[in-house]
């Protein structure tokens, strides 16, 4: 009898085996994540919807459509930006290329690749600048481009094989205003100044000043020129303005 009961128990264990792990087919979402295309679902095995019916592609089709439209919308601007050419414009010169240097001008001289020579140099009373290696270089009456060419030639003569030099005006020599103004003296020159703006910088006319014209002394290639001019006359670096006294 005991043997019979044991046999029945063993038979029950054989028939009631535990669950076995089997490979399950990947869902559509897995296929989207890993790039696999799922096999077509058999009929009657669609997605269960809230209404109790099945739908073979509604939710996932909308999801796929959303991913596709998002990728297209983000890719288009990249193509548009990549196709846009970059445009650059050369900077305008900060000074008149025909400007003539003189004592009091401060120059920024750049010798490319030579930090020991690149510096700010002031034109002295004798009209020259002094640089390492080449010493004094005449600058009075020359244009910035002409001075750069002279420095290049001097450096090439036994110092630097192929020098590249640029000369820029860091600050202009001052102008002078005398006579019937509130504060006569020397003032820094600013490009595009007129005689009238020079009077304003000097504090304006005094009560006795003649206000219709002034005496302007200007230096050019012909030398020093002195003339009576109206207030709207352009002013240059190093010019001298004399405001006279009125007689009535």
Write a concise synopsis of the structure shown.
This protein has helices at 2-15, 28-34, 58-83, 144-156, 195-201, and strands at 47-48, 54-55, 106-111, 119-122, 128-131, 135-138, 165-171, 175-179, 185-187, 214-220, 223-229, 240-243.
Structural description of this entry:
The chain has 248 residues and is an alpha+beta fold. Among the domains are: 106-171, wza like fold; 175-243, Outer membrane lipoprotein wza fold like. It is 27% helix and 22% strand. The protein has 5 helices and 12 strands. It has helices spanning 2-15, 28-34, 58-83, 144-156, 195-201, and strands at 47-48, 54-55, 106-111, 119-122, 128-131, 135-138, 165-171, 175-179, 185-187, 214-220, 223-229, 240-243. The strands form 4 sheets. It has a 5-stranded mixed sheet, covered by helices on one side. Strand 10 (214-220) and strand 11 (223-229) form a beta hairpin.
Widest β-sheet, arrangement of strands: 9-8-12-10-11
- Strand/helix succession: HHEEHEEEEHEEEHEEE
Find the CATH superfamily of the domain at 175-243.
Outer membrane lipoprotein wza domain like
Number of strands: 12
Main pleated sheet: 5 strands, mixed
Number of helices: 5
Low-confidence stretches: 1-34, 36-57, 67-94
Beta-strand content? 15-25%
* CATH fold category name of the domain at 175-243: Outer membrane lipoprotein wza fold like
Strand-pairing-aware structural class: alpha+beta
CATH class of the domain at 175-243: Alpha Beta
Radius of gyration (Å): 45 Å
Mean pLDDT over all positions: 74
**Tell me, what's the shape?**
elongated
Helix content: 25-40%
């Amino acid at each position: 009898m005991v043997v019979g009961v044991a046999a029945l128990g063993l038979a029950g264990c054989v028939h009631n085996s535990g669950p076995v792990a089997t490979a399950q087919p990947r869902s559509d979402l897995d296929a989207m994540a890993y790039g696999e295309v799922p096999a077509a679902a058999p009929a009657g095995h669609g997605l269960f919807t809230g209404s109790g019916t099945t739908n073979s592609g509604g939710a996932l089709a909308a999801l796929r459509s959303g991913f596709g439209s998002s990728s297209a919308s983000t890719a288009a601007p990249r193509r548009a930006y990549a196709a846009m050419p970059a445009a650059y414009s050369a900077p305008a010169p900060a000074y008149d290329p025909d400007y003539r240097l003189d004592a009091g001008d401060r120059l920024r001289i750049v010798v490319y690749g030579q930090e020991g020579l690149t510096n700010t140099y002031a034109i002295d009373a004798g009209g020259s600048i002094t640089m390492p290696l080449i010493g004094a270089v005449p600058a009075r009456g020359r244009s910035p481009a002409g001075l750069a060419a002279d420095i290049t030639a001097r450096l090439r003569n036994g110092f630097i094989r192929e020098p590249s030099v640029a000369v820029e005006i860091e600050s202009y020599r001052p102008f002078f205003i005398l006579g019937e103004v509130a504060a006569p003296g020397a003032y820094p020159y600013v490009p595009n100044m007129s005689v009238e703006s020079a009077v304003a910088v000097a504090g304006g006319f005094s009560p006795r000043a003649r206000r219709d014209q002034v005496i302007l002394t200007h230096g050019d290639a012909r030398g020093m020129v002195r003339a009576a001019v109206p207030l709207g006359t352009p002013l240059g670096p190093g010019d001298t303005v004399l405001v006279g006294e009125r007689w009535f």
